[in-house]
UniProtKB/TrEMBL annotation:
Identification of the protein by name: Methylmalonyl-CoA epimerase, mitochondrial
Purpose: Methylmalonyl-CoA epimerase involved in propionyl-CoA metabolism.
Record's keyword annotation contains Metal-binding: yes
Tagged with keyword Metal-binding: yes
Organism: Chloropsis hardwickii
Top-level division of the source organism's lineage: Eukaryota
Length: 164
């Protein structure tokens, strides 16, 4: 009947055995990926965005900090387990200005993940043909070295790695 046809045509789902761990398939690295540090959001109006998170949602929001080397103003929104970074253009050559030209209302710009050894990460990622958007790490918003990985090599996501 219909039920037996539905059961036989239903796709099978494989489950992971609890005795096998994901790490068995991951080669050992000289560096280790850490926790999610922040998700960055480009915003066309920094004051409105700060107000949304602080006044409407009740979050703890930092003061605005200018980062001329990166061409951005940043504001951090503290969450229990991570942060949001609000980004606004600083100057005409800001990468956020060009992002906002394509995304008028703003949107997610990048994710930032901590690493325990940024230099080792750079060396290994280059060997694995992952493009890094600078030759050397720059000092990021937290005063620590950061690099960005090309979004085309990371499934469409701009990934920032920050020294833990």
């Amino acid at each position: 009947g219909l039920l037996s046809r539905l059961q036989s045509s239903a796709p099978t789902v494989q489950t992971l055995s609890s005795s096998k761990s994901f790490s068995q398939n991951i080669p050992s690295c000289l560096w280790k990926l850490g926790r999610l540090n922040h998700v960055a959001i480009a915003v066309p109006d920094l004051e409105k965005a700060q107000s949304l998170y602080k006044d409407v949602l009740g979050a703890q929001v930092s003061e605005t900090v200018a980062l001329p080397e990166h061409g951005v103003y940043t504001v951090f929104v503290e969450l229990g387990n991570t942060k949001l970074e609000l980004l606004h253009p600083l100057g005409e050559k800001s990468p956020i200005a060009s992002f906002l030209q394509k995304n008028k209302t703003g949107g997610m710009h990048h994710i930032c993940i901590e690493v325990d050894d940024i230099k080792a990460a750079m060396t290994e990622l280059k060997k694995k043909k992952i493009r890094i958007l600078s030759e050397e790490p720059k000092i990021g918003a937290h005063g620590k070295p950061v690099i960005f990985l090309h979004p085309k090599d990371c499934h469409g996501v701009l990934v920032e790695l920050e020294q833990a």
